[in-house]
Amino acid sequence: MPCCAATPCMMPAPRPDAPVFLTVKADHGLALGETNVTEDSLPDALAATTQGNRDARILLRADKTVDYGTLMGVMDQLRAAGYLKVAVVNLQKTGEGSMAP
């Protein structure tokens, strides 16, 4: 259905200029951007990366072998640290047939 003045459009949120990626690796280790972090250091590392902006959108991605419970545990850690804008994204594939970001 086309958008018009009477019907507000549901447009996807724009991508952040400097996305904050948090990755749950196959061994359940964490990486904030390209830097490995521990569960204990995650809140401080996030604060440093986002410059204390708890409204920053965190893009959470995980290896396909990571179980649901582990992923939800990381989301709970983000929530406890005050980061409520979390989007779950897939890991970018590399190699043949993948699309560039």
Q: In terms of topology, how is this protein built?
A:
Elements: E1 20-24, E2 30-32, E3 35-37, H1 42-49, E4 58-62, H2 68-80, E5 86-88
Parallel strand pairs: 1-4, 4-5
Antiparallel strand pairs: 1-2, 2-3
Can you describe this structure in just a few lines?
With 101 residues, this protein is of the alpha/beta class. It has helices at 42-49, 68-80; strands spanning 20-24, 30-32, 35-37, 58-62, 86-88. Strands 3-2-1-4-5 form a five-stranded mixed sheet, covered by helices on one side.
Task: Give an account of the 3D structure.
It is a single chain. The chain has 101 residues and is an alpha/beta fold. It has a domain at 20-88: 2-Layer Sandwich (Nucleotidyltransferase, domain 5). The protein is 21% helix and 19% strand. The protein has helices at residues 42-49, 68-80; strands at 20-24, 30-32, 35-37, 58-62, 86-88. β4 (58-62), α2 and β5 form a beta-alpha-beta unit. The chain is globular, with a radius of gyration of 16 Å. The protein starts with 19 loop residues before the first strand and ends in a 13-residue tail after the last strand. Residues 95-101 have low confidence and may be disordered.
